[in-house]
Design a protein that fits this description.
The chain is mostly beta strands and 123 residues long. The chain has no helices and eleven strands. The strands form two sheets. Strands 1-10-9-4-3-2-11 form a seven-stranded antiparallel sheet, with no helix packed on it. The chain has a four-stranded antiparallel sheet with strand order 5-6-7-8, with no helix packed on it.
Length: 123
């Protein structure tokens, strides 16, 4: 996919995210409202679409809580599936072996561009 087919969304102050903290952002695909999130895990920022690969539903049920610190996993509140933060691979649950849709981040100092394929601004 050409980069011109992707939405470039500016996220500021990501350097302020603490370990296990997330920043949620919204976008559209056609008429569908979508979300993504950036997670700081072991000092590294990772971005994913907020969609469980099992049923295609939001992982967090709307409360913006994606990460379980004791297990060091991203999790789906509906199915209990857990995902490795670096790769998005499901290691427990009904979608074991599948992955979250990872989004590219381009860091720019304390901020970043998140690149979202086939998306438009959420207005």
């Amino acid at each position: 996919m050409a980069e011109s087919d992707a939405l470039r969304l500016w996220l500021s102050a990501l350097s302020e995210l603490g370990e296990g903290d997330v920043r949620v952002f919204r976008f559209r695909r056609g008429k569908a409202r979508c979300e993504g999130f950036v997670l700081r895990y072991r000092g590294v920022l990772c971005a994913y679409e907020n969609r469980c690969p099992h049923w295609g539903i939001d992982l967090d049920l709307g409360d913006e809580r994606f990460y379980d610190a004791p297990s060091e996993r991203i999790y789906c509140k509906t199915h209990g599936a857990t995902f490795l933060p670096y790769s998005g691979e499901c290691d427990t649950g009904p979608c074991r072996g599948e992955r979250l849709d990872r989004l590219e981040l381009e860091l720019a100092g304390h901020d970043a561009w998140v690149i979202i394929p086939d998306a438009q601004l959420f207005v």
